[in-house]
Each structure stands twice: as structure tokens, then as C-alpha cells.
Design brief:
about 240 residues, alpha+beta, Beta-Lactamase, 2 domains, five-stranded antiparallel sheet, two-stranded antiparallel sheet, 8 helices, about 35% helix, elongated, disordered N terminus
């Protein structure tokens, strides 16, 4: 793919025979860069060394194709480095977000000011969906505009958001239906919608739990019918 020179460097993995990419040394904000904004050979080597070890996926896109992907990117997508390099960058994006990812990718390479981060869904090679937050910046690759980006898996965060949304929706429906209360013992999985933790008891519950549930049920029934819980009048 070319020889090492003063302005660019072949990653170690490529020198060992694996397909990679020669990255033109115009990475922004790379320590050791010259006054003209171009990075030194050592700075580019440091970039590749760091990218190869990062847990976040790192991509370089030139035009419409991936030109570099680090090991984390292959783990996240399920594709090998050889498969990713040469693919169109929007091909592994969920169809619902594919067009906006495509437009922003080209716009960023053209120097258009677009938001720094973008959450979207990836389609892995196995067909699974992975939520990521993508951050990118414009660079040059072989003298051409390109995109350097990172993607971080936020699937767990999205799952928590969705669980919270369902819980809030359920509670809203209960309020709107004028239900005074919903009695669910802490041994029932439904309490996960309104409680941070619960302690199911395999094989049934003890007599104390049953007695308290029955007592609370009777109290709630009396309150709903306009009466007072037993002992309330005596307490006055």
C-alpha cells in the first residue's frame, strides 16, 4: 500500500501482513504535530498504538468507505477488519438512521459544521442491533478529506431508559384511571416496574407475608369504599 515516509506510517498490524490503511499524517490535535498541522511519524505511530488498544471503536472513513477499523470496531460489529475496510460506512447502520448518518458523514468530510455526536443503531454481522454514540472529526487521508470517528456502545443505557419510560407510562395510566392503589407483594416480579429491587421467595411465601398482604388488602378495600381502616377511629 506504500512505504513509510516522513508524513505517514504503516500500522504494525499491516506490516505483519494484515490489511490496514496508510493514514496521511494530518490528524488534528495529535501531540507532536508540526506547526503546519501535520503530525510527525512518531505521533501517527502513537495514534495507531492507542487506537489498537482502545475499548471504543475507532474508524477512518474516506469518501464513502471505511479505510481503517480497530479491533474494538471488529468486536462491536462482528465483521473482520478485512470485511470492514472497503465497506460503505452506512451499510452497517440501522435503516431508520442510515440516511442521516450518510448525510452527516459526507457533510463532515466536506467541512460542514455538524453536531459532534450522533446516537444511532448499528446492525452487526449476526443481525443484532447495537446502540452507539458516534463522535467524529474531519482529517485528511492521502491528501483527501476523510473522517476519523469513535463509537461507544450505549445499549445498556438505552435499555434502562426504555424500562424507565415503560414504568412511567404504567404509573401514568394508573393515575389517569383513578385507581387508588395497586397492591403487589414484593415476591411478585411486577414490582420491578415501581421498585429498584425485590426479593422473590422460591416456592411460596411465609405466614407473616400472607397476613400482612391480607391486612393491607382489607384496609385498601375499606378506604376505597369510603370507610376507615380498622383501628383508625380508635386511634383518634
Amino acid at each position: 500500500m506504500g512505504q513509510c515516509g516522513s508524513d505517514r506510517l504503516t500500522p504494525q498490524r499491516e506490516r505483519d501482513g494484515q490489511r490496514g490503511v496508510l493514514l496521511d499524517a494530518t490528524l488534528p490535535h495529535v501531540p507532536g504535530g508540526g506547526g503546519n498541522g501535520r503530525a510527525t511519524v512518531g505521533a501517527v505511530a502513537n495514534f495507531y498504538a492507542l487506537a489498537e488498544l482502545m475499548e471504543a471503536a475507532v474508524f477512518v472513513v474516506e469518501g464513502e468507505e471505511y479505510r481503517y477499523a480497530n479491533p474494538a470496531a471488529t468486536r462491536m460489529t462482528g465483521y473482520t477488519r478485512e470485511e470492514l475496510v472497503g465497506m460503505k460506512f452506512w451499510e452497517i447502520v440501522h435503516p431508520d438512521e442510515r440516511e442521516v448518518v450518510r448525510e452527516r458523514g459526507f457533510a463532515r468530510q466536506a467541512g460542514v459544521d455538524v453536531p459532534q455526536q450522533l446516537p444511532y443503531r448499528l446492525y452487526t454481522k449476526s443481525g443484532a442491533t447495537v446502540w452507539v454514540v458516534f463522535s467524529g472529526t474531519r482529517i485528511e487521508h492521502d491528501g483527501k478529506p476523510a473522517l476519523l470517528g469513535t463509537a461507544v456502545d450505549i445499549s445498556r443505557h438505552k435499555e434502562v431508559e426504555e424500562a424507565l419510560r415503560r414504568s412511567e407510562a404504567r404509573l401514568r395510566r394508573l393515575v389517569e384511571s383513578n385507581v387508588l392503589a395497586v397492591l403487589v407483594g414484593d415476591v411478585h416480579p411486577d414490582v420491578v416496574n415501581v421498585a429498584g429491587a425485590f426479593t422473590p421467595v422460591p416456592g411460596g411465601v411465609g405466614p407473616l407475608t400472607i397476613a400482612m398482604l391480607m391486612s393491607n388488602t382489607v384496609k385498601a378495600a375499606r378506604m376505597r369504599r369510603g370507610g376507615q381502616p380498622a383501628g383508625a377511629a380508635a386511634a383518634r
